[in-house]
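Q: What would this chain look like folded?
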Amino acid sequence: MKLSNIKLYAAAIAIGLSTVSCEDFLDRPAEDNYNVDNYYKTDAQCYAGVDYLYNSPWYDFQRGFIKVGEVLSGNYYWGSSPYLTFTLNGTDEDLVNMSNSLWAVIGHSNEVYKNISASSGPSEAAKNATKGECLTWKALSYFFLVRSFGEVPIIHSTSEEIEKKEYNQVHKVKKADVYEYIIMTLEEAMKLLPKSASDGRLDYYSAEGLLAKVYLTKAGVSGTLNQSDLDKAAMYAKDVIDNSGRKLEDNYEDIFKLANSKTQEGLIVWRWVASGTNWTRQNSLQSDLAMNGIDDWGATWGGWNGLSVDLQEAFGVKLLEQTPDAWKNAVDSRIKGTMMLPGFVYSQFWQDKGGFDYIKFIYDYSVSKKLESATGANTVKHIYGNTYDHQVGAGCSDGRMASSVPTFILRLADVYLVYAEAKIGASRESTTDASAIDAFYAVRHRAIKNAERPSSVSWNDIWKERRLELAMEGDRWYDYVRVSYYDPDFCVNELQNQKRNQFWGLDELYKGYKESGSWNVTSSTMYDNVTSVPNVASMMKKDPDSGKRYFFMPLPTNDVVFNPNLGSNVDGIHVDVRNTYSY
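A: My prediction, written as structure tokens:
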């Protein structure tokens, strides 16, 4: 890590990050006269001091969240992006920002945790709850780091690291030990967090749901699936399912509507604030993902990209072989809730204009007045529409590159699928366990109302279901990473056989449909079979212990120059986590 960043983390306290918010639990007055010595004296100050961990330090990860989770995985087409072509290196701006953001979360979480621990005045309940929130955010950041970069350092105490003055000597730690550290951190968080919390705050089941997912991921880190880890993943996931009191939303599309931002389905959520007074507290994803003209600010430029052809076909959508009736009448409601296609109209967008008709918008209202998306499908998730829509949904105005749309990091449906997969066990075959089938069926039946309850569920069933359920939620690449720990060939083969390229000639097809209602595919409309398949294996390295290749990204070049111990050619060291660290 860079010296400048380490020093920045040491200054992490809640003061100076005030805002005017349309989120109840993010409201607080300006605190310019506070410092660490006279703050954290009341329950309210403890909660306010943690609030910014729900957004600001994560801001620079937003673009990487999509590019890594969705572009690398083949769910999203983003032009000539190195994430699409597997030509990523340590100087990539989005990778650097992502890394800095994740380390910032850890640094801020460490310092706020330390300050609250040392405070006097607040109740033990408030101190425990807010310390538990700090630890959960810290664990989540490490979970992203180890799945993104592989072996990474453990910074248990930022202030102690500064006192040692060895910033350019820290070593990476073996992946298995990093996972053990995440588990230890979440176990401590679960001791501190309340069983329920209001206004979308983290609670016990937030940490427990994440712990279940961590165990499912850790299960394969040795090169073969560990049944004990799978059993723990199932145990923790089942407790969330049975005892958290949370339920799946009845309608899939409703999850992502701004007006439903406090849905109980969100276990861990980045909660953004559309405030012009504090940059980095807002959600800027609509600017990157939406078509130019949808907002009132002229600040959207994502129309040229789109949901990949491969993801479309995973949903059963084949633009060149079907007519719009096929997807308009599709039984899987997640299609409309995930991707904009010709024929789809959205009541939650452009409410002051009678709704948002995708095909009409392209040719009547978009800035370019033509189809921009190279794949013919734009995203629904992370989009809010225009200023009127934001005002109706969030109770406050949007801003330029600024919305309050929440980003779901862990949803209840994910925990259901973690449970079902863990119950299949190390065989990766199938299960007839009734509770596992029920968990899988709950997710599938919500999306496909006439789906029949299966008599068994296979690993491949769940693998596909995860892709459809969580598409565009920054998760798919990390599924490939965890499976690459123990079955890299499966991952390489699947990725190399994806349809990751663009269509040619769609604009004429779409325009004809808008003008006449006819869907006339001609010989000039085709899928790009010319662009070569990317070298997927270029982003793999051999694990020194298991001998198997796994996916990783290089740490930023500047960090490696500052500390050669972070280089991709340097193996991590073993750390006895339980005997080295404590909370």
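Residues 6-21, 24-33 have pLDDT under 50 and may be disordered.
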